[in-house]
Amino acid sequence: MKKAICILVFVLLAGSCVAMAQGTQDGKALNIPPPPPKSKPDMQYGNTARAAIIAERLTEAAQGNAAVHINEDCIITVEVYLKQDACPYDIAGTMANLTYMLADMYSLTDRADCDIALKVYDTSKNLIIDAKLNVARNAFEYFKAV
Is pTM beyond 0.85 here? Predict the structure, then answer.
């Protein structure tokens, strides 16, 4: 009986925490989306399960503006296919930040020492940005608008 009460209290507390997270704050409703379904690797986004999941999430986060593909080999290759044409000079900062973020993510894995190659393509699949991040030096070896 005591165990059942403890479980009930725990469930009620957990439920109230969830309700608070999706409730109101300062009189305003919080708009928190539901969690996405558990990831199942869709290999069209990458050559490993991890790469596919990361690339699919990045594609979803781009909200229809880009598709991302990640290939994990000696070098991690990130290919970004834009759905709308953009000037490489306008998106260079965003693409550099994407590369830094991926370097940080991979630093926690067995691929921590792998350099990252970035290739960004326009809607005609023409290469518009070509870059390579040297992870050991934490600096780009090159970053070219093509």
Answer: no
